[in-house]
Structures are given as structure tokens and as C-alpha cells.
Amino acid sequence: MGAIQRTIKAVDGVSLRIFERDVVGVVGESGSGKSTLANVMMMNIRPPLMFVGGSVRLNVGKEVLELQKLDRDVLREKVWGREIAIVPQSALNALMPTLKIRKLILDVVKSHNPDVVEDEVIGLALKRFREIGLPEIAINMYPFELSGGMRQRAVIAIATLLNPRLLIADEPTSALDVVTQKMVLKTFLDVYNRNIIKSIVFITHDIATVRQIATRIVIMYAGKIVEDGSVEEVVAKPLHPYTDGLLGSVLTPEEEIRKRGLKYIPGQPPDLANPPPGCRFHPRCPFAMDICRREEPPFIEVEKSRFVACWLYSKR
Ligand SMILES: Nc1ncnc2c1ncn2[C@@H]1O[C@H](COP(=O)(O)OP(=O)(O)OP(=O)(O)O)[C@@H](O)[C@H]1O
Ligand code: SF4
Ligand SMILES: [Mg+2]
């Protein structure tokens, strides 16, 4: 008997543009496709993930790179770390425990450019450490010798070593206590405000975090982007019923939202191997209409830079 093959469209028909100086918070429940979207944005596609169609374009000066056309070797040499870098989900645990931070840094940089001069790399790393308030001594330590917050800052230092224009951070604060979370968020803002990186995509399921760090918010539901707009506008006036549910009252204190998480919307997200027809949110939506059960709502710009996929805002 062969293994059962199920195809899951973990991100499906999404359209996302990141501009210079954007800090985009990507929010969605577990399994909504946030990490998959991050991998697609870098074209880091490895089995079981497959890229079925679409394009990932990166403006580099006057040139536009179509990342989906590049081999992994070219991506590694030209794009990853230099143009787009990622702090992957669970990066804290992924640090090789048997290697000192110094060696981890050298390994990362050498994977992009085997011919680098080690002293130069370490010099660069120490400069970055100073910039983000990490003691230089940390470079000679093992990951387990650092506190959670210091380790996460070491990860940020490593990811930003080559001054990537875009930094994608996948749930970088989820495993940390509230005080450490604040410190790590500040580190992201430090590298951003110092212009070391130009833009951030910050993935989280914590709306409160997004409100602290992001300029724009992107809401994902069941592999789709359902809303995209400035944090200010989306928080003040969410358009999509799912966003509305996530945010609760805008007057809700941040601690309350943090405690409640995203769990209070009744029902479960769908199985992506067999998503419901029409709008994927319709089984949970208090406003669902006939058309919502039949046809997928288009993702449209309802006001300048405010996008939503919901039949409440589309002409049929
Ligand atoms: N290695 C895998 N094999 C099979 N299915 C996967 C794999 N990785 C992800 N998926 C599926 O793809 C969908 C999206 O997963 P993804 O990890 O992108 O979600 P996420 O929003 O990052 O979730 P989380 O908040 O838990 O990190 C999920 O339905 C998941 O079951
Ligand atoms: S399209 Fe319909 S079901 Fe989907 S969110 Fe809008 S109103 Fe609700
Ligand atoms: Mg994830």
C-alpha cells in the first residue's frame, strides 16, 4: 500500500507587496499558512512544499529578479541573507547547541560566500552586536549559555549581518515572556531605525505585538490573505468579519487581547486539504450570504491601500 497523498494549498492565490520602510505584521491562526508564505517570499521551496504557480518579484535597483526562476544556488548567492533574510520559526531552538556563536556566524556567512575573511566577518558581527546591545562576549559563548532574549538578539544579529533589505521574522517572540518580548521587539526596531534593514515582515498570531511594531497588517485565513491595510486603519475599522473577530473591541486592553489570543471566534479553521467552497470563512461568519457559500470573494482595494476579500464589499 502506498502512502496516502494529500495536497494542501497552504497558501493560495495570495498577493502581497512589500515596500521600502514597510513593517508588515502577518497575523493568522496556527496553520493559516504564515510560515509557508514566508518560505514562498524567499522562494525557499523544499519538499513537501511545492511551488505550483505565480511569481515572486524582487526589485534590485533597476532590475527585477523573478525569484521563482532562480536556482537555489543563485538564490543563496544573490538573494538570501543579502536581499531577504529570515529569522525562522523556532530559530531559538534551531541554533546548533554544540557550536559557539562565532562558529554559527562564520558558517552562515560562508554558506553565502565561501571566500570571506573570517576576521572581517567577526568584526562585522561585533559591530552589529554593539548596535543591538548584545555584549561582545556573547560571540564566544554557546547558545545555551545565553538567555532567551540574548539568544534571539544573536539570531537577529546573524540574520542582519549582510544588511538584507527585507527581514522576515517568523514568530520571533512567541516562546518568550512578556518582558523579553518587548526587548526583542525593540531590537527589531533598532535594526530598522538604524537603516540596517529597510523593511520587516513580522509573522505572529499576537495582534498586540503587531500593534506595537507594525505599520501595516496583513490578515491570513486558511491559506489566503483576507485583509491588508495600515495598522491604524485596520484596528480602528476592520473590514473583514474575521479581522473584526480577531480584534474584538478596539477598546480591549492589549493584555486582554493577549490573554484571549485568537481563540474566541467560534468554530475551527477548515481542513486545507478540503477547504469549503466560496469564502473559506463562511462556516464561521455571522454575515454569511448565499454567494459566500458558492463563490470566492475577490481580493479588492476598497480604499487607497486598503484591501479585503469579502462579499460585503464587492459588487456581484
Ligand atoms: N511539512 C508539512 N507537511 C504537510 N503539511 C504541512 C507541512 N507544513 C505545513 N503544512 C500544512 O500547511 C498549512 C500551513 O502551514 P504553516 O506552517 O504555513 O502555517 P502557520 O500559519 O505558519 O502556522 P503556525 O502558526 O502554527 O506556525 C497547514 O495546514 C499545515 O498543516
Ligand atoms: S465573504 Fe461572506 S462569509 Fe466571507 S467573510 Fe465576507 S460576509 Fe463572511
Ligand atoms: Mg508558522
From TrEMBL:
Swiss-Prot/TrEMBL keywords: ATP-binding, Nucleotide-binding, Transport
InterPro entries: AAA+_ATPase, ABC_transporter-like_ATP-bd, ABC_transporter-like_CS, Oligopep_ABC_C, P-loop_NTPase
Any one Gene Ontology BP term: peptide transport
UniProt superkingdom: Archaea
GO MF entries: ATP binding; ATP hydrolysis activity
Residue span, ABC transporter domain: 1-247
Pfam family, any one: oligo_HPY
NCBIfam families given in the database record: oligo_HPY
Name the UniProt record assigns to this protein: ABC transporter ATP-binding protein
